[in-house]
Specification:
This protein has about 270 residues and is an alpha+beta fold. The protein has helices at about 5-15, 20-35, 70-80, 85-100, 105-115, 140-155, 160-165, 165-175, 190-195, 245-250; strands at about 40-45, 50-60, 120-125, 130-140. Helices cover about 40% and strands about 10% of the residues.
Length: about 270
């Protein structure tokens, strides 16, 4: 079931046998920020024309234990870049953990997570029929989950119109998607409204949020729920700041299919 899938797991499930490791990493960081496991702090610095917005990624205090493998690996990377948590330092640690091309994030972390869930199996493939590399193929269960996810992604297109008229239904649709909700580009302009809809139904403050059926949102997939909707907080999420990851990833090396086939990230 997709409720337990992290955003990069859902991304890989939907795109195998192809992938963009940069996209998967970006989704992984975004997911942990919206869960409150990572803090995204924006520092404004004077510029020639306008202020520059410098993102800092830091690990949030009092994280739950144990973390799922993918989340634990990303948290370890960010912690190694502290205390500053500058993007260039986070990316440098990514290169250390996942090799220069970053492909280790897929091959040693995200792919094995899907294998553990029974949604994928290891596969030996070849680039252009010549160069061998390690990949993954969906199992029968994985193919079924992919079809289900694709259907949910189509349904979630109705969420923007439901935020005010039926917030409980909007949240149910997002919860059914699990971490895959971050893959729906159409939702990005509506993140502030979603954050407001997730506020407690009694209007009080605090960290609790209103859901129609909280017990169903942690995910029951093998390996535990990696994306817990009980901890979503869109108020700490700045999708614009993550755009700087796209430029920064080019400094960390290539990615996607193929690439470096040796070594291990230890995920």
């Amino acid at each position: 079931m997709s409720e337990g899938l992290s955003a990069p797991e859902a991304y890989l499930l939907l795109n195998l046998p192809h992938w963009d490791v940069h996209r998967a990493l970006k989704l992984g960081f975004m997911g942990l920020v919206t869960q409150g496991m990572l803090r995204l702090d924006i520092e404004e610095r004077p510029g020639l024309v306008r202020k520059r917005r410098i993102p800092h990624l830091r690990v949030a205090p009092a994280l739950p234990e144990p973390l799922p493998p993918v989340a634990a690996s990303l948290v370890k990377v960010v912690r190694a870049a502290e205390p500053e948590g500058l993007l260039k330092d986070v990316l440098r640690q990514c290169a250390h953990a996942y090799r220069r091309t970053l492909v280790g994030f897929i091959r040693d972390c995200v792919g094995p997570a899907l294998v553990t869930r029974g949604l994928a199996a290891p596969k030996r493939a070849r680039i252009l029929g010549l160069v061998p590399y390690d990949s993954f193929a969906l199992t029968v269960a994985g193919e079924a989950e992919k079809v289900r996810l694709q259907g949910l992604i189509h349904e979630v297109s109705a969420v923007p119109s439901l935020i005010e008229s039926d917030p409980a239904k909007a949240m149910s649709l997002i919860a059914a998607l699990g971490g895959a909700f971050l893959l729906v580009e159409e939702l990005k302009p509506h993140y502030p409204a979603l954050e407001k809809a997730l506020r407690p139904s009694d209007g009080s403050g605090g960290d609790s949020y209103y859901f129609p059926n909280p017990a169903s949102f942690d995910g029951g997939a093998p390996g535990g729920g990696c994306f817990n909707f009980g901890h979503l907080d869109f108020s700490c999420f700045d999708s614009g700041a993550f755009d700087s990851f796209d430029a920064g990833f080019s400094d960390a090396g290539g990615g996607g299919d193929g690439g470096d086939g040796g070594g291990s990230s230890g995920c």
